[in-house]
């Protein structure tokens, strides 16, 4: 925070929930959250680079700990895809995409474990002179909506590739209630609601959980600023919440991955 500014719960939380937003063109209608974009891209490169380096250095003998961990991760994701996707070679796209989503979302969620005052305050404000930086990309609804919309567009792409553009349009108007022209409006409305609800539920579930976790961490760090007793209680409660938050981080990444697999699979199914 700015030097000399009085610390209040409102100012502290509001400061740490401010994005590093840059307007695109004139006006403020289109803005880029630079912190979200750069952090997400950096973690994407880290996740892909890590997996690539392990696979590139893999041996057929007794695997090391890192290789064994990655192999377990591969097998875990592959088993999830195998249980849902039964429409061809899952290794061509679905399984790699699911693995990428799981690892990337897990890393973005895990940024919540970094002490916000050290990262945002010491590193960005004091050293880089950047006065607003939110380190958790999945606590930004723009990130989760972008991921969910990407999954939706890929699902529609699979629909069109499997059924053709005519078959997909026919399904929009004739499923699930039948092909009678009188039922076309009801079918189209039903499918419209389904297409809208998928990215909404897919994105808001992840965003809501990570945003709530971010708020709780901020409240705990704010408590630590009240004195020695507050610092002790904040440290104990923060450790407990961090341990519990590990489950949330992994569970939300798992749910997001599973819904991605389900939606991809729906692109291959006929009504």
Question: What is the topology?
Answer:
Elements: H1 9-16, E1 21-23, E2 31-33, H2 34-56, H3 65-84, H4 94-110, H5 116-127, H6 141-174, H7 184-224, H8 228-266
Helix pairs in contact: 1-7, 2-4, 3-4, 4-8, 6-7, 6-8, 7-8
Run of helices and strands = HEEHHHHHHH
Which structural class matches the secondary elements? mainly alpha
Output the radius of gyration: 22 Å
Number of strands: 2
The number of domains is 1
Strand order of the largest sheet: 1-2
Beta-strand portion reads under 5%
Tally the helices: 8
The helix fraction, in percent, is over 70%
Query: How does the major sheet shape up?
Result: 2 strands, antiparallel
For the termini, the CA-CA separation is 56 Å
Key descriptive features of the protein:
two-stranded antiparallel ribbon, mainly alpha
């Amino acid at each position: 925070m700015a030097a000399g500014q009085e610390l209040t719960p409102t100012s502290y939380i509001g400061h740490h929930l401010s994005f590093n937003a840059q307007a695109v063109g004139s006006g403020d209608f289109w803005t880029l959250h630079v912190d979200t974009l750069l952090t997400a891209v950096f973690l994407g490169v880290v996740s892909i680079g890590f997996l690539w380096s392990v696979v590139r250095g893999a041996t057929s003998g007794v695997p090391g700990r890192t290789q064994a961990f990655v192999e377990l991760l591969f097998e875990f994701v592959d088993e999830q895809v195998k249980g849902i996707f039964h429409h061809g070679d899952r290794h061509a796209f679905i399984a790699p995409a699911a693995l990428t989503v799981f690892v990337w979302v897990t890393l973005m969620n895990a940024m919540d474990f970094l002490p916000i005052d050290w990262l945002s305050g010491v590193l960005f404000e004091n050293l880089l002179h950047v006065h607003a930086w939110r380190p958790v990309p999945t606590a930004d609804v723009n990130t989760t909506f972008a991921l969910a919309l990407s999954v939706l567009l890929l699902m529609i792409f699979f629909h069109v590739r499997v059924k053709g553009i005519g078959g997909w349009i026919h399904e929009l108007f004739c499923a699930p209630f039948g092909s009678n022209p009188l039922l076309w409006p009801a079918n189209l409305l039903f499918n419209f609601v389904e297409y809208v609800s998928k990215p909404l539920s897919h994105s808001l579930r992840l965003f809501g959980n990570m945003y709530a976790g971010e708020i709780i961490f901020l409240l705990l760090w704010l408590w630590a600023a009240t004195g020695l007793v507050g610092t002790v209680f904040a440290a104990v409660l923060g450790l407990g919440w961090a341990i519990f938050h590990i489950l949330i981080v992994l569970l939300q990444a798992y749910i997001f991955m599973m819904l991605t697999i389900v939606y991809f699979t729906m692109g291959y199914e006929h009504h």
